[in-house]
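tokens incoming
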């Protein structure tokens, strides 16, 4: 069923955005793997060029996730739009927090560290505990999780939609589960959340792109009743 406010523009933007998110997540996963393989010890932080590339990919990814939620809101049936609007709001918060954190880390953290300020690692590093790390957990393990859980009820149609809904629910729950690492001060447990906001979206977004792509021949150019 094509929802009346879902136009050709939604379909095109949604398709390209979903597949773009998938490509960026693939690039992020490959960069992360190469960065981990480059380490001589698991305790070492990932260095350049892998670290900087990962930061750039996240900054690019954040607005695309917001656009995806805008399209999902356009796709939602009227009775489900409270959920899609909630998802959009949560994703905007997540994107704003994470893009701000990673931009600051990318641009100024090393300059400050090289200047000899001892407090830099407490504020601008991904070594626990730090302010930047805590904010990034807030963005992904809480607000991204809430966005996924809120978007899930929008998809109630055929088999493909039901698969997307199920995967979004699991993604949100796993992202929330990563919070267990915070009170225990064990960031290895927080990796559970990475499965939720990196692993499962590698499946969710190409399926979402496929859903929108399949609608290419049946979507109107403008909402019904919208005069020329």
């Amino acid at each position: 069923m094509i929802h009346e406010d879902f136009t050709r523009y939604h379909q095109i933007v949604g398709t390209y955005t979903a597949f773009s998110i998938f490509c960026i997540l693939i690039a992020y996963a490959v960069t992360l793997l190469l960065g981990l393989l480059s380490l001589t010890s698991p305790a070492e932080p990932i260095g350049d060029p892998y670290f900087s590339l990962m930061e750039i990919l996240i900054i690019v990814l954040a607005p695309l996730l917001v656009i995806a939620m805008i399209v999902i809101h356009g796709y939602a049936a009227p009775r489900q739009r409270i959920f899609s609007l909630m998802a959009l709001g949560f994703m905007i918060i997540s994107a704003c927090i994470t893009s701000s954190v990673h931009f600051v880390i990318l641009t100024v953290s090393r300059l400050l560290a090289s200047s000899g300020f001892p407090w830099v690692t407490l504020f601008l590093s991904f070594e626990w505990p730090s302010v930047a790390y805590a904010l990034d957990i807030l963005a992904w393990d809480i607000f991204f999780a809430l966005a996924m859980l809120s978007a899930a009820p929008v998809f109630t149609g055929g088999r493909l939609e039901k698969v997307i809904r199920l995967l979004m629910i699991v993604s949100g729950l796993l992202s929330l589960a990563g919070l267990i690492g915070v009170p225990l001060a064990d960031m290895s447990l927080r990796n559970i959340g990475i499965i939720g906001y990196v692993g499962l979206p590698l499946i969710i977004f190409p399926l979402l792109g496929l859903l929108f792509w399949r609608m290419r021949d049946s979507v109107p150019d403008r909402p019904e009743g919208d005069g020329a």
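note: DSSP finds eight helices and no strands in the chain.
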